[in-house]
């Protein structure tokens, strides 16, 4: 929980609080992604039935992950076709990886929003309507 005070000359007339993730959350997430890409498949030993892997710090798995690229109703995977991606990013969120080599298409989307708002005495706000075009990429 984080809180911030608002008030004249540093007084705390109003206190705003919000829930937030721990500061190390992103760091832990990056480490997990790195470990996931180097995970080791383990199998039961033929003679002893024991599990073998190289280190207690390795991330291991016994069943391979499904192919998340393609639709599979049995597994509940919708695949990545039609999913929004970002051509500017590298790694998992980028179009190269997320679209599984199928490429992506770019669409122009019109965004309509209020802008150039001004307060008029007394007591209303008047805004203009602005139209902007945004490029979005979607996996083929």
Describe the structure.
This protein has helices at residues 25-37, 95-98, and strands at residues 2-6, 14-18, 40-41, 60-61, 84-85, 104-120, 124-139. The protein is mainly β. It has a domain at 84-139: Endo-n-acetylneuraminidase fold. A hairpin with a 3-residue loop joins strand 6 (104-120) and strand 7. The model has no long low-confidence stretch (mean pLDDT 85).
**Span between termini:** 41 Å
Task: Find the CATH topology of the domain at 84-139.
Answer: Endo-n-acetylneuraminidase fold
CATH architecture of the domain at 84-139: 2-Layer Sandwich
Give the % helix. 10-25%
Radius of gyration: 25 Å
The CATH H-level superfamily of the domain at 84-139 is: Wnt (Wingless and Int-1), C-terminal domain
Instruction: Give me the secondary-structure category.
Output: mainly beta
Percent strand: 35-45%
Biggest beta sheet summary: 3 strands, antiparallel
Shape: flat
List how many beta strands DSSP finds: 7
Q: What is the H-and-E element order?
A: EEHEEEHEE
- Regions with pLDDT < 50 over 5+ consecutive residues? none
CATH class of the domain at 84-139, named Alpha Beta
Q: What does the average pLDDT come to?
A: 85
Strand order of the largest sheet: 5-7-6
Count of separate DSSP helical elements: 2
Function: Ligand for members of the frizzled family of seven transmembrane receptors.
GO molecular function: cytokine activity; frizzled binding
Subcellular location: Secreted, Extracellular space, Extracellular matrix
Main location: secreted
